[in-house]
Request: fold
Amino acid sequence: MKSWLCALFIAAATQLHATDVVKVRLVGPKGCANVGETIRVVENGDEQHAFAIARDGTAPCTWRGRSLEPFDPRTTVFSVRLQGARTPVHYADDRSNESIAQLTFLYAPASAFDVGVDALDADKQWMHIGYVRHVWADDRADVEKDEHGELTGSSLHEIGDVNFDAEEVELRLPGMRSAASGLLVNLVLQKTTNAILDREKIVDALHRQDMKGKRRSSPRNSLPQRNGVDDKMMRSSPLDRLELKRK
Reply:
């Protein structure tokens, strides 16, 4: 009985701190004229369920809307996609405000691009590819955060508003172990806008990540052993070809 009442009180307390209203203000010397009438908000790193909010005509450089589900403004973090720019990850400006999450971001235009992903198996069927965007913190207000998404058969097969100066983007390829580091897109598209990788080239790209010390969550075994794991993973993987485009 006591445990049931405790759970009820916790649920009730959570509801008291729930809202679904988000307000975003962009600040910066270049204004916000190039930003669209709607922008997309990512909540707690869940890119799969980003939601759109619309420009608020009552205040300059401000957008307002509702999230897909209520959230706790004390603990939720947000970032924004701006069609050519992306923001860092922030908490609400005032986390004690229980009616709205108000967020302020510095706007730097033309700092991001879309990454197109084409992943096919041997029968030329699309393969689901997961990805992780590890966003760095450059300012005291920023939160270092992993944002996650998946490119499915019905999606656009694009990762939107990528900024290599602000984040690392890793692809989670079929057959990869959950603790293994993904394929780092930053290194693949560092010197080219279009890369077509077969299985051998994917393994080579993973090896180069190792050599540069760019493998996040790498296994503790030696470099040759890790290379052997990559070789084995790609030999058994249904992935036949991977194409990445910087758009």
Remarks:
- The CA atoms of residues 130 and 150 lie 4 Å apart.
- The radius of gyration is 21 Å.
- The helical segments are 2-16, 185-188, 199-211, 223-236.
- Residues 4-14 have pLDDT under 50 and may be disordered.
